[in-house]
Amino acid sequence: MPDKPLLEIKNLKKSFGDNLVLDGISFSLNGGETKVIIGPSGTGKSTILKSINRLVEPDDGEIWLEDTEIISCRHINAIRQQIGYVFQDFGLFHHLTVLKNVMIGLTRVKKIPKEEAMKKARYQLDRVGLSGTEHQYPAQLSGGQKQRVAIARALAMEPKLMLFDEPTSALDPELIGEVLTVMKELADSKMTMLVVTHEMGFARSVSDEIIFIEKGSIVEQGPPEKMFRHPVHDRTKEFLFKLEDLYGEGSG
Amino acid sequence: MFSSLTDFMIVDIFVSHFGQLMEGLKFTFQLTIVSMICGTTLGVLLALGRTFGKKPVSWLCTAYIELIRGTPMLAQLFILYFALPPYGIKLSAVTVAYLGFTLNVAAYQAEYTRGSIEAVGEDQFKAAASLGMGHWQTVFYVVLPQAVRWSIPAWTNEFIYLLKFTSLAYMIGAPDLLTQGKLIASRNYQFFRVYLIVGIIYLVIVLAATWIIGKIEKKIEIPGFGHQKRP
């Protein structure tokens, strides 16, 4: 265990108008760990991820990425380069080919020479199993392929941390597996990952810890075995039971 | 009346004034292309200013666009041509034509482009931000290239329209196709036949331009844009 967590969130708070979405969230993530955030819809799961790279501005609290405090950081774009973000709706750039989608962050943000960027992009595309699609446009891909391109694009930036915001929620059931497989391989390669998902199979088999959030607060957190077998709170038990009923266990 | 349409005088007039008509056509093309290129460039800048500029910039761009779109083109040409000389600004008819059409096209193109910019989804901004792109990087590398793609049909439509609309330059005596027609007719008094010839020439070039542009649009089309549904 490293002495200092890679990501540490302290007392994170956020309201949208009168609606208190995050009511003091604290947890940390060590390098190489994968944690999964679960909880009912509208309980602020995505808001936590968005706060981490400041797509949402938190009201209060601290977020530390190693030695940098993110909320007070004035160069947010420098932080964002170090955090990969995978969206529910992919967010691929429609006017660019697959290869250029993966390259654009390298060439335009990191100012890496084109040749080198192309090499890195091809490597990441190969990693997510999409060699051969380089010159296709997003409109020509399936949802699962789009999400894998999005993952490759985030990985190409060589981030310290990957955030997954319901990465399989917009996918047809038969396409979910290919995305989860890529994510599992990433976790196995010791990428540090924070995942919001309803895929209990993934949470159970891949994550080091599951964090259950409801109404903006952490109800319970712990290793998957403990969370599934011996949850302390009735609410956790009830929620996990419902999810397993809905999605089954095997989809991861 | 019908017999006059089928007589050969039309051919005679066309052949004997071919050079002059082509001179006019050449100017019509030049005026259309120059004002289209300059106007569209200016229009894109106006659209960016209106959408992403700081308040005073956005307000100024909006004011310009609404002023131009809210007044007749002919009035704009007359102001440039007749109302400026007393203030010491004397411009030739040709200059006024180039300037007037450029300024006019810019306002309309700005609005087409703005519509396309606003159609670029929120997800594109978020994705760009997540890679660490700055505001203007996002605008130039992500938003604008997509907005331009969406704008192409409106732009090319404007080009076709402009081919004919430049005949308004006739009102200030700029030497376009219609002006040349008028000069020919005022000498041979064959107004009907001459204007018929001019009309046919406009029809032919508009049809040709429509066909060529259709080919170009098809050639530069990428999946997800153009005739297919939006992603």
Task: Describe this structure as you would to a colleague.
Chain A has helices spanning 45-52, 76-80, 98-109, 114-127, 143-156, 173-188, 200-206, 224-229, 234-247; strands at 7-16, 19-29, 34-38, 60-65, 68-69, 83-86, 161-165, 193-196, 209-214, 217-222. Chain A has nine helices and ten strands. In chain A, helix 3 (98-109) crosses helix 4, helix 4 crosses helix 5 and helix 5 runs parallel beside helix 6. Chain A has 252 residues and is an alpha/beta fold. The model of chain B has no long low-confidence stretch (mean pLDDT 92). Chain B is flat and about 70 Å long. In chain B, helix 3 packs antiparallel against helix 9 (177-188). Chain B has ten helices and no strands. Chain A binds chain B through residues 53, 55, 77-81, 83-85, 87, 89-95, 104-105, 108-109, 136-140, 150, 153-154, 157, and chain B through 123-124, 126-134, 137, 141-142, 145-146, 149, 222-225, 228, 231.
Question: Tags for this entry?
Answer:
heterodimer, A: 252 residues, alpha/beta, six-stranded mixed β-sheet, four-stranded antiparallel β-sheet, 9 helices, 38% helix, B: 231 residues, mainly alpha
Briefly summarize what is shown.
With 252 residues, chain A is of the alpha/beta class. Chain A is 38% helix and 23% strand.
Please specify the SSE layout and strand pairing.
The complex is a heterodimer of chains A (252) and B (231).
Chain A: E1 7-16, E2 19-29, E3 34-38, H1 45-52, E4 60-65, E5 68-69, H2 76-80, E6 83-86, H3 98-109, H4 114-127, H5 143-156, E7 161-165, H6 173-188, E8 193-196, H7 200-206, E9 209-214, E10 217-222, H8 224-229, H9 234-247
Parallel strand pairs in A: 3-8, 3-9, 6-7, 7-8
Antiparallel strand pairs in A: 1-2, 1-4, 4-5, 9-10
Helix pairs in contact in A: 3-4, 3-5, 4-5, 5-6
Chain B: H1 2-6, H2 9-16, H3 18-52, H4 55-69, H5 73-83, H6 93-119, H7 122-130, H8 135-165, H9 177-188, H10 191-220
Helix pairs in contact in B: 2-10, 3-4, 3-6, 3-8, 3-9, 4-6, 5-6, 6-8, 7-8, 8-10, 9-10
